[in-house]
């Protein structure tokens, strides 16, 4: 049977007759929901299908700007490949806004028509591929809620081109296409004249909130809400409870860590209202923030404006109850001495991460309030100062960007990482000249892209961040020459000028403010609906601060567009760190999160175009993430946060550095602490070697079996194999005889090479005899006599169990996770570590792991440069080692895999750089009809025999992983 037909047959059987029937993941029918058990949303499948299709059409009744934005990058990539599509939508219920129709006209590779069919309610998506076609049919319109948030049911079906279902869908679409009117500017003008937006609480059947509705969780600082009672949002309610708990415990200091845009100033005002101080002091580092903060407090507290005063520059206070002061003015001797030390019973420091400065220390040391509250979005510092210590480590409440997005506290954003342009044949990079940065070619390109990706609402209110003052002023002139209304603001401008320009932007008199870093924090412009980044990312903190300028909610603002122009910058790896808040320093984690953007919570999206994604991969590969500076800084930040020497498990629980990376750097954690000059209790040589063994081999959590047994043995000293197996079975883990033997060989060190055994002390931790496991006496003795050693062992066990949560431990290997050759030997229950002789593949114990180095260096030492290739997401073209033919023993074993039940596992490494770790692509099955005997030339130019064959992967390679591997 034709292999494609065989795949479809097995997919039909699996999907509609018997789910236990093995099939290729790519072809089976799927129910798409938000989110599924893997965390994927409907949007993921929609983008994957678009990215791999050769043609597409949609028939959808309702489309929103956000829904369209979520696929604009992939549509732009398709346009570069001359791949076109068609969309039919409607004017049904006036759901679709005139502006959304204008956005559709920007899609140069998509033809759009409007049907006026009564009751048009279709929700169908069709994608043509080289060998088959895909349909997504169900409940999801092209809205961001339907694609990411709502409870939706969609059926994803695959078909050959002659299938009845796909033909019926095509015929119906073509009939509607012929009866529909092409979308045009004149049609939009006519539509707009009769447009009647729905103002109901919720729009029909999509749960899509109209832009005129106010989110009840949102606190928006606009004049029209001034007469309404403002109440705390969900975050603020929780934070207020936790702050009060601190006071109930008689704590005099507390700190709140809250993402930009979540309403920290309002939160503090609510708390002041609860506290009812006799005198209150608000301190901040920028005068620009004071008036806004004072107005917000007046609104919340409801007291006479005469009770509020500003202490800044020429503004002096007398006996006002509520004082709002800049640190620059307050810290002056002549100002500070005018106040008694106990003048204020409640002091609040905003943007408290600045409080390490001498001016802040002077003020804090002077005053003696009953309660001191600090607030910041970014408590981490690079100068070593411990903000947490200042507040006695009393963190009352903490909410970071990802959680704030999930809780719908911020305005959803659509981030687009797009490639910067080539000027004079060279892509913008760290060495680009000023003339290249402001060339007409680049300006025109920037304008083209900001128009394509657009903004929420009819009028853009944008911030553009660039690299230098000179560049800001030049961009102002060139944008204005092209019809925009822009103004450059830099540190040279006085506060009054900044306030005036901001007011112009909010009033719609300016399109953009072009700035250099002065808006990184402390500036509140809720109406900003587009943020443009025209500079390299120097720091993940600054990136997040600039992103945050657009995240405040505002009336008639459903989302903010973030457009990041990414050149060949060395620091591009900081972008996924900032967007994902991943501080693990683990390159594999960063690669994975760059590949798959489903990690983003709520209705926000992240999209990188193909070139940009590759640039980020290259930046991750070449970055020196694992350097001494990063380790020291991460350790100090965590120690500051905890107020004590961290344990390994703390790094996971506080989402800091991956502990496995730490122990790779210095073999074990006590050695790492000693390197940091921390004072730790002594360990003898054998104890150190045992900790090195546990850290190097078992800390990663890829199999829990060994440490589960160790826990049992520490508790009981001896454990029967039968009881151990029963316990594994209760936990849902593999408990066959081969696995038990493997565990025994690991803990006895028999699995390891002679050099490894010497490194690990040549003494087993546990031994097996007469059906019973028991702890080695030397290990027991160390546990009894050295409390520090015991704590380190317990820490490793806890850390490993935390690390194991990312793996499916009911199986030997977890699909799409990363493994080294030694991991594979251990997890496939091989008797010994045969890493040194495994190379490309090895057949042993009825298993055959295949390791593919995908992009091979021309200088490789192999006899033959292999041409292994992923033909598509479910097929690997694979080559044996040289000097083999169909009669060779190992070729026969592979081709007879069905008879012997040989388990073939495929591992792929993008290229041989850094750690030799491979992505596990799952089980593979040879397609015997594709096997060929070939003649290839070796490195000396001599002919040699080799066998090639295609292998079908049991699970289709995720598109993001497939793209990552294939990209050069």
From TrEMBL:
Record domain Helicase C-terminal: where: 448-601
InterPro entries reported in the protein's UniProt record: DUF3427, DUF8090, Helicase/UvrB_N, Helicase_ATP-bd, Helicase_C-like, Helicase_Restrict-Modif_Enz, P-loop_NTPase, PLD-like_dom
Protein's name according to its UniProt entry: DUF3427 domain-containing protein
High-level lineage: Bacteria, Bacillati, Bacillota, Bacilli, Lactobacillales
Helicase ATP-binding domain boundaries: 245-397
GO cellular component: cytosol
GO molecular function, one term: DNA binding
CDD domains listed in its UniProt record: DEXHc_RE_I_III_res, PLDc_N_DEXD_b2, SF2_C_EcoAI-like
Species annotation: Enterococcus plantarum
């Amino acid at each position: 049977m034709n292999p494609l037909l065989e795949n479809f047959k097995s997919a039909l059987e699996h999907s509609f007759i018997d789910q236990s029937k093995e099939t290729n993941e790519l072809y089976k029918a799927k129910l798409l929901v938000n989110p599924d058990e893997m965390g994927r949303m409907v949007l993921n499948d929609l983008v994957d299908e678009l990215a791999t299709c050769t043609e597409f059409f949609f028939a959808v009744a309702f489309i929103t700007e956000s829904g369209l934005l979520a696929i604009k990058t992939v549509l732009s990539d398709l346009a570069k490949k001359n791949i076109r599509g068609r969309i039919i939508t409607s004017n049904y219920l006036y759901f679709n806004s005139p502006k959304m129709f204008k956005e559709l006209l920007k899609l140069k590779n998509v033809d759009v028509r409007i049907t006026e069919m009564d009751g048009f309610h279709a929700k169908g998506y069709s994608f043509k591929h080289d060998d088959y076609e895909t349909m997504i049919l169900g409940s999801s319109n092209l809205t961001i809620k339907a694609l990411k948030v709502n409870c939706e049911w969609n059926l994803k079906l695959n078909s050959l081109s002659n299938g009845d279902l796909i033909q019926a869908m095509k015929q119906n679409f073509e009939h509607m296409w012929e009866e529909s009117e092409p979308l045009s500017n004149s049609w939009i003008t006519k539509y707009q004249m009769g447009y009647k937006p729905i103002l109901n609480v919720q729009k029909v059947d999509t749960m899509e909130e109209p832009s005129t509705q106010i989110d009840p969780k949102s606190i928006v600082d606009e004049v029209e809400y001034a007469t309404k009672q403002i109440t705390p949002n969900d975050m603020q309610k929780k934070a207020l409870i936790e702050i009060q708990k601190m006071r109930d415990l008689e704590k005099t200091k507390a700190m709140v860590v809250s993402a930009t845009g979540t309403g920290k100033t309002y939160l503090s005002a609510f708390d002041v209202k609860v506290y009812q101080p006799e005198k209150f002091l608000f301190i901040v580092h920028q005068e620009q923030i004071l008036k806004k903060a004072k107005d917000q407090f007046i609104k919340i507290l409801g007291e006479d404006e005469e009770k509020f005063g500003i202490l800044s520059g020429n503004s002096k206070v007398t006996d006002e109850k509520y004082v709002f002061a800049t640190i620059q003015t307050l810290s002056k001797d002549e100002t500070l001495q005018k106040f008694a030390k106990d003048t204020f019973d409640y002091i609040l420091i905003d943007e408290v991460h600045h409080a390490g400065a001498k001016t802040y220390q002077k003020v804090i040391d002077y005053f003696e309030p009953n309660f001191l509250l600090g607030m910041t979005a970014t408590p981490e510092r690079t100068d070593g100062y411990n903000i947490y210590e200042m507040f006695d480590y009393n963190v009352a409440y903490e909410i970071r960007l990802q959680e704030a997005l999930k809780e719908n506290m911020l305005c959803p954003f659509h981030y687009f990482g797009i490639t910067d342009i080539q000027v004079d044949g060279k892509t913008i990079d760290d060495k680009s000249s000023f003339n290249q940065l402001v060339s007409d070619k680049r300006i025109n390109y920037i304008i083209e892209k900001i128009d394509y990706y657009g903004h929420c609402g009819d009028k853009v209110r944008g911030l553009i961040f660039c690299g230098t003052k000179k560049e800001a002023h030049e961009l102002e002139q060139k944008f204005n020459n092209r019809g925009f209304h822009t103004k450059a603001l830099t540190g040279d401008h006085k506060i009054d000028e900044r306030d005036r320009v901001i007011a112009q932007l909010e009033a719609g008199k300016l399109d953009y403010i072009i700035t250099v870093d002065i808006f990184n924090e402390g500036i509140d412009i809720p109406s900003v609906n587009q943020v443009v980044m025209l500079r390299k990312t120097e720091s993940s903190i600054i990136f997040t601060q600039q992103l945050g300028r657009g995240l405040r909610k505002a009336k008639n603002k459903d989302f903010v567009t973030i457009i990041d122009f990414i050149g060949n910058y060395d620091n591009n790896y900081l972008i996924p760190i900032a967007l994902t808040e991943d501080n693990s320093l683990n390159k594999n984690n960063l690669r994975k999160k760059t590949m798959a953007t489903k990690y983003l919570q709520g209705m926000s999206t992240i999209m990188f175009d193909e070139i940009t994604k590759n640039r980020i991969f290259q930046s991750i590969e070449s970055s020196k993430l694992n350097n001494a500076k990063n380790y020291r800084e991460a350790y100090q930040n965590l120690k500051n946060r905890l107020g004590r020497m961290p344990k390994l498990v703390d790094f996971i629980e506080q989402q800091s550095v991956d502990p496995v990376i730490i122990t790779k750097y210095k073999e074990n954690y006590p050695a790492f602490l000693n390197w940091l000059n921390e004072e730790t209790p002594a360990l003898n040589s054998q104890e150190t070697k045992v900790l090195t063994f546990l850290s190097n081999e078992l800390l990663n959590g890829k199999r829990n079996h060994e440490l589960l047994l160790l826990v049992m043995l520490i508790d009981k000293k001896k454990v029967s194999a039968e009881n151990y197996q029963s316990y594994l079975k209760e936990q849902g883990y593999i408990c066959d005889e081969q696995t038990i033997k493997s565990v025994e060989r690991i803990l006895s060190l028999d699995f390891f090479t002679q050099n490894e055994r010497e490194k690990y002390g040549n003494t087993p931790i546990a031994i097996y005899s007469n059906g019973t496991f028991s702890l080695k006496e030397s290990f027991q003795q160390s546990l009894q006599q050295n409390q520090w050693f015991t704590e380190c062992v317990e820490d490793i066990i806890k850390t490993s169990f935390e690390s194991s949560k990312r793996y499916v431990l009911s199986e030997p290997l977890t699909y799409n996770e990363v493994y080294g050759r030694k991991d594979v030997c251990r997890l496939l229950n091989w008797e010994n570590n045969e890493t040194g002789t495994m190379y490309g593949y090895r057949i042993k114990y009825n298993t055959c792991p295949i390791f593919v180095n995908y992009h091979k260096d021309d200088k490789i030492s192999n006899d033959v440069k292999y041409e292994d290739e992923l033909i598509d997401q479910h097929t690997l073209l694979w080559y044996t080692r040289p000097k083999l033919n169909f009669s060779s023993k190992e070729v026969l074993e592979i081709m007879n895999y069905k008879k012997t039940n040989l388990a073939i596992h495929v591992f792929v490494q993008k290229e041989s750089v850094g750690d030799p770790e491979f992505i596990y692509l799952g089980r593979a099955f040879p397609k015997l009809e594709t096997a060929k005997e070939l003649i290839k030339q070796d490195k000396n130019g001599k002919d040699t025999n080799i066998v090639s064959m295609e292998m079908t992967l049991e699970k289709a390679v995720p598109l993001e992983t497939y793209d990552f591997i294939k990209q050069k």
